[in-house]
Amino acid sequence: MKLFATALLALSLNAVAAVDLAKSEFKWTGTKITGSHNGTVPLKSGSLVVEKDVIKGGEFVIDLAGLSVSDLTGEYKGKLEGHLKSGDFFNVEKFPTATLKVKSVKGDKVTADLTIKGKTNPVTFDVKKDGTTYSGKLVFDRTKFDMIYNSGNFFKDLGDKAINNEVTLDFKVVQN
Questions:
Q1: Contact between residue 45 and residue 61 where contact means Cβ atoms under 8 Å apart
Q2: Alpha-carbon torsion, ordered 170, 143, 121, 98, to 10 deg
Q3: If you average pLDDT over every residue of the chain, what do you get?
Q4: Over the stretch 143-164, which tens digit does the pLDDT of each residue have?
Q5: Ordered alpha helix ranges (H), the chain
Q6: Closest Cα partner for 85 from 117, 122, 61?
């Protein structure tokens, strides 16, 4: 009986918590020489491993096919969404999702593996907890995931057509 109680206590301290997909959000921003574009990308699924109210792990599946542009309307919105979903960027026909797997958390600093287009790279970012909501800003280099379109690192003389390599994801993840 004592062993059962100990196992039950261990399970309660290391709980896997589902993420509220409707309340959670990922907002992206991409910048270029002449300005920026932004939008949203939904979560397909998500879970957090929480121990004594502290994140110990987690996994998120990002629905790249649902990526949308927020700063444009009409024809230009559709063109940019189509281009971002094409092989020049996320290639959602072949890779409809991306994943983020939390590897470790030390204080507010999270280390995770980000997988886009079948390529995995480590990322680090800070997270802030407010009740059951975790928020922060994750920045990644798109060229590490074979998205080199109009990158000054790969193409010369782009002038005002150059697109910066860093993409920012402002996130809010709400635990169920």
A1: yes
A2: 60
A3: 91
A4: 999 999 999 889 888 988 999 9
A5: 2-13, 74-85
A6: 117
**Sheet of 97-106, strand order:** 14-18, 43-51, 54-63, 97-106, 109-116, 119-130, 133-141, 163-174, 25-32, 35-41, 68-69
- pLDDT above 90 coverage of the chain, percent: 81
Instruction: Find all residues with CB under 8 Å of 47, minimum gap 6, and list them.
Output: 16, 17, 18, 19, 58, 59, 60
Task: In whole angstroms, give the CA distance from residue 45 to residue 176.
Answer: 12
What are 59's strand-pairing partners? 47, 101
Residues with Cβ within 8 Å of residue 109, at least 6 apart in sequence: 124, 125, 126
Residue closest to 173 by CA, chosen among 124, 129, 135: 135
Residue pair 59/46 in contact by the 8 Å Cβ criterion = yes
Tokens of 64: 């790249």
4, pLDDT greater than 70:
no
How many other CB atoms are there within 10 angstroms of residue 116's CB atom?
24
The CB density around residue 142, as the number of other CB atoms within 10 Å, is: 20
